[in-house]
Amino acid sequence: MSYLRSYLLKGADWLMTGKVDTLSLLNNMDIRISDGVIAEISENITPLPNESIINVAGCVIYPGIVNTHHHVFQSLLKAIPNSLCLSLGEWLQAVPAIYARTFDTTTWRIAIQVAFCELLLGGATACADHHYLYYDDTSSEMTDIFFEEAESFGIKVSLCRGFSLRKKSHTNFDRQVEHSETMSQLFERIEDTVNRYHQLDDNNMRSVALAPGSPFHSCDIEDLHELAQFARTHAIRMHSHLSETIEDYVDFCRERYARLPVEVLAENDWLGPDVWFAHVVHISESEIKLLAETQTGVAHCPTSNARLGTGIAPITQMLARGIKVGIGVDGAASAEISNAMNEVYLAMLLQKSQNGPKAMDWPTAVAMGSLAGAEIAGFNNTGTIDVGKSADLVVYDLDGLGSEGFNTPALSPLLTAGRIPIRASFVNGRKVVEDNKVLGIDPFHLADKAKKSLNLLMRGG
After folding, report:
1. Cα–Cα distance between 237 and 209 in angstroms, integer?
2. How far apart are CA 397 and CA 436, in angstroms?
3. Residue 231's closest CA among 267, 276, 263?
4. Residue 156, class by beta-carbon neighbours within 10 Å (0-12 exposed, 13-18 middle, 19+ buried)?
5. In contact, 116 and 153? CB cutoff 8 Å
6. How far is CA 271 from CA 261, 288, 387, 444, in A?
7. Which of 30, 64, 140 has its CA nearest to residue 433?
8. What's phi and psi for 155, nearest 5 deg?
9. Chain-centre distance of CA 404, in angstroms?
10. Cα 141 from Cα 115, distance rounded (Å)
11. HEC sequence for 22-77
């Protein structure tokens, strides 16, 4: 997909900066994008010769949302019959454990395409995908396809490279039990992926993280130190699920190690500013303190946690301690709607429902979705709308019925849970969405391919 190197977004009614201060919302602003970054923000900017001018009157511009936890392959596993009222453990056995075995390169590619379309149309510009379909006989093709599709769509991605080193798993993944990777296989493969795809520069588009499905069930506790040493030697982050349920995490660690989960991780080098965990629902005050002291991040997944009945993470308490909390849509097999703005909105509502109406304001919610997510997942130089920052922007059209009746129209994308159409979206200055359509994608053709792939998966499962 070709794109112009210079754009002038002219006449925006509102600008949501993503900052949690008095400058959270500006009005009547132009934005110049040049060489992938925001070059100028001001009123009445004079166009340059040959500059592409985009009329954004009647619009509000938000920073792109960073989705900090996803399972992209699950975009073809929504609403599996009899899975909608299962607990996490039951759901893991009834959905991922069965259907993960049926994915091939074709269904994987289509699942990625569906997921990236959903994310871009839901206000996201970056995605950290926790992908764990790796076995002893896995080739690099699955990884290559992921990065190929990310390049095609123009979305920023982090491959949170999942794995299992154990022959027995709490999730009863039969294929993982039979075909787990060895430590040497894992290190050789991740090193190859890092060498080919991992970027450390400003405005990075691709990165890699080391990401066991669970630090307690996907490997032995004795492995954690070696895994952490490998990650830090290769300058990659670490990610995993944590304390999603009491049984699999809190009770397990108490019984096995006479410690709480975060305490076990602290003793094994698995906390720090280069680490973030998804869910973190069942956590004590002392564990929150440990996360804060070590600057460990959290990916909050409100829809999935609600759908599976695992609870509501104590985000208000985490934020009060200074923990960086981002937003994750989680896998569509447990959250169905992969709309990042919906997650930001629901996160705000749930904290209010538990802790009162002042528990979370809208600037905090927006910053969780953008800046905090970028910082914990390792997407550099993005998350706010500032001169010099990567041009990761979403332009929402306020002229439709969805924004009518709003005394503060700029809040309608957030307060309607992402149901305001997108006039344009940019990632590193590349236009990826126009008039609520993902550029380069025929939605009807993709829908047809997805239906065919779904039928194949269901027969295989």
Report:
1. 5
2. 9
3. 276
4. buried
5. yes
6. 11, 12, 33, 45
7. 64
8. -90, 145
9. 30
10. 19
11. CCCEEEEEEEEEECCEEEEEECCCCCCCCCEEEECCCEEEEECEEEEEECHHHHHC
Which H helix or E strand runs over 449?
Answer: helix 443-460
Q: How far apart are CA 227 and CA 206, in angstroms?
A: 21
Sign of CA dihedral 219, 222, 224, 229: negative
Measured distance CA(301)–CA(346) in Å, rounded:
9
Burial class (CB in 10 A: 0-12, 13-18, 19+), 383: buried
Give the C-alpha separation, 425 to 366, whole Å: 17
Neighbour count for residue 151 (Cβ, 10 Å): 13
Find the distance separating the first CA and the last CA of the chain, reported in whole Å. Answer: 36
- List C-alpha distances in Å: 5 to 34, 366, 394, 427, 430: 6, 28, 17, 12, 8
Q: Which residues contact 361 (CB under 8 A, 6 or more apart)?
A: none
Angle between helices 141-153 and 183-197 (to 10 degrees): 30
Task: List per-block mean pLDDT (blocks of 10 residues) for the chain, which spans 461 residues.
Answer: 75 95 87 97 95 96 98 96 92 89 92 98 98 90 97 98 75 55 96 97 96 94 97 98 96 96 98 98 98 98 97 98 98 94 98 97 97 98 97 96 91 96 98 97 96 87 53
3-state secondary structure of 425: strand
Question: Tokens for 294?
Answer: 């070590």
For 416, counting Cβ atoms within 10 Å of its Cβ (0-12 exposed, 13-18 middle, 19+ buried), the class is: middle
How, if at all, do strands 325-327 and 297-300 pair? parallel
